[in-house]
Amino acid sequence: MEDLLKSIELCKNTDELEKLKVFVFGKKGAITAEFAKLKDLEGDEKKEKAKILNEFKEKFNLEFDAKFAELKEKEIKEAELKDAFNFTYFDLNATKGAFHPIMSTMDKIIDYFTRMNFSLEEGPIIEDDFHNFEALNLPKFHPARDMQDTFYFANSLLLRTQTSPVQIRTMQNTKPPIRMIAPGAVFRRDFDMTHTPMFHQIEMLVVEPNNNVSFANLKSILEEFLKYMFGDVKVRFRPSFFPFTEPSAEVDISCVFCNCKGCRVCKNTGYIEVMGCGMVHPAVFNNVGYKNCSGYAFGLGVERFAMLIHKIPDLRSLFEGDKRLLEQFK
Ligand code: DAH
């Protein structure tokens, strides 16, 4: 009988337990047979045997019930786990995420300007011809549109080629003074080592009533900003042309690869172009109904900044999702 009690412990599931119970107390069970034999006994012997059997039965049932409860609980848990995702499981080998270099560069620039009280503006990625070109003093058939060929929809809609239309939208919705930046994706029909059909720009615009701001303000803001981004670089302004600014300039920094000595990246010029800027053209103010205002603006390519900061040679690699590149930015 001791063996039968030990068998309870050995059962691995409730099925085995039930079978054991049938084996012991079922119709043809081992102990059932012992109880049946009692009728052939008499007197003290019968009493003695009955006592032993009843005590065994009681003990067996107690141990059986405890084991049954234990196994049942385990089986319910196992059934639940089978279907459910285990949220308590922590995989120490799981890879941790990190910001993409474009996003972290963008965040750094946004952070810089929002701390100086610039507002953060947004515009639609599917833009209309008026905001993307016309209002920025780029009428139809203007040769400067050539550099910004893009993807067109019906009804004069297009994938915006620059973040400059957000200047127009912001001026249409607010009165001066304005201090804004507008980050976002832009699109062009380009593809080579330094151009992808989708890339990111950040636009900056300051407008003041009357002639309160000048090119000197723009220069000093940009020098501060570029030193914040690239460290101790030289900053150079080159006269240029943008239809929406007059005068316009392109801004170069001393080459971060060769420190002005001349290398392949800066094409031996010692300088690298990082953005376009200028004083807002009167025609642009006219197009949004602003009178007696002065302002300055710039537009920069975020990928270009990220490439220079992290010394990434091929712009396209930023969009290939290659883990070997991305893992370096954890
Ligand atoms: N939108 C111009 C481009 O994509 C960049 C630019 C130049 C923006 C001068 C400006 C600016 O705001 O003043 O090429």
Automatic annotation (TrEMBL):
<dbReference type="Pfam" id="PF02912">
    <property type="entry name" value="Phe_tRNA-synt_N"/>
</dbReference>
<comment type="subunit">
    <text>Tetramer of two alpha and two beta subunits.</text>
</comment>
<dbReference type="InterPro" id="IPR010978">
    <property type="entry name" value="tRNA-bd_arm"/>
</dbReference>
<keyword id="KW-0648">Protein biosynthesis</keyword>
<keyword id="KW-0547">Nucleotide-binding</keyword>
<feature type="domain" description="Aminoacyl-transfer RNA synthetases class-II family profile">
    <location>
        <begin position="121"/>
        <end position="328"/>
    </location>
</feature>
<keyword id="KW-0479">Metal-binding</keyword>
<dbReference type="InterPro" id="IPR002319">
    <property type="entry name" value="Phenylalanyl-tRNA_Synthase"/>
</dbReference>
<keyword id="KW-0460">Magnesium</keyword>
<dbReference type="InterPro" id="IPR022911">
    <property type="entry name" value="Phe_tRNA_ligase_alpha1_bac"/>
</dbReference>
<keyword id="KW-0436">Ligase</keyword>
<dbReference type="Pfam" id="PF01409">
    <property type="entry name" value="tRNA-synt_2d"/>
</dbReference>
<dbReference type="GO" id="GO:0004826">
    <property type="term" value="F:phenylalanine-tRNA ligase activity"/>
</dbReference>
<keyword id="KW-0030">Aminoacyl-tRNA synthetase</keyword>
<feature type="binding site">
    <location>
        <position position="246"/>
    </location>
    <ligand>
        <name>Mg(2+)</name>
    </ligand>
</feature>
<comment type="similarity">
    <text>Belongs to the class-II aminoacyl-tRNA synthetase family. Phe-tRNA synthetase alpha subunit type 1 subfamily.</text>
</comment>
<dbReference type="InterPro" id="IPR006195">
    <property type="entry name" value="aa-tRNA-synth_II"/>
</dbReference>
<keyword id="KW-0067">ATP-binding</keyword>
<protein>
    <recommendedName>
        <fullName>Phenylalanine--tRNA ligase alpha subunit</fullName>
        <ecNumber>6.1.1.20</ecNumber>
    </recommendedName>
</protein>
<dbReference type="InterPro" id="IPR004188">
    <property type="entry name" value="Phe-tRNA_ligase_II_N"/>
</dbReference>
<dbReference type="InterPro" id="IPR045864">
    <property type="entry name" value="aa-tRNA-synth_II/BPL/LPL"/>
</dbReference>
<keyword id="KW-0963">Cytoplasm</keyword>
